[in-house]
């Protein structure tokens, strides 16, 4: 079994920061689960175009508010604590932070490897290198 805490992962290699969001990647490809798990914060008032061509993603809102627009049909869905959205069609979308930061629990399949950030289309490549130092995996035993 693997046990980690959010506090142990914050401000390590697992913590990826951009202008509109930051994400703490608590479970990654080298854990060999077939999916990754992240706690992501979408900043209030921000807008992020995303198109995960290579990944499926499910996103559960823990706190805050915002909205998601699916670009193929122009539909806008509010997001608040308790909402899940499931990108089962590799849907092109825009994620907007609301009046406060939106805290999300995200699952990606296949797993991310560590340091991915969006490319020009808002996608992650499939061949990103894994985190380099396995001693930073913060695995707790015993
Ligand atoms: C919800 C979402 O897709 N946010 C962008 C960041 C992503 N969740 C990640 O890399 O952790």
Helicity range of the residues?
A: under 10%
- Sheet with most strands: 6 strands, antiparallel
How confident overall, as mean pLDDT?
A: 90
Please compute the radius of gyration using only Cα atoms.
15 Å
Widest sheet: strand order? 1-2-3-10-5-8
What ligands can be seen in this structure? (2~{S})-4-acetamido-2-azanyl-butanoic acid
Note the overall shape: globular
**Total beta strands:** 10
By DSSP (H or I, 4+ residues per run), the number of helices equals: 1
Could you tell me how far the N terminus lies from the C terminus, measured between alpha carbons in angstroms?
A: 10 Å
**Order of SSEs:** HEEEEEEEEEE
Overall structural class, as computed from helix and strand content, comes to mainly beta
What fraction of the residues are assigned to beta strands by DSSP? 35-45%
Summarize the structure in words.
By secondary structure, the protein is mostly beta strands. Helix content is 3%, strand content 41%. It contains 1 helix and 10 strands, in the order αββββββββββ. The strands form 2 sheets. It has a 6-stranded antiparallel β-sheet, with no helix packed on it. A hairpin with an 8-residue loop joins β2 (21-27) and β3 (36-42). The longest helix has 4 residues, at 6-9. It is globular, with a radius of gyration of 15 Å. The N and C termini lie close together (10 Å). The model is unreliable at 133-142 (pLDDT under 50). Bound molecules: (2~{S})-4-acetamido-2-azanyl-butanoic acid.
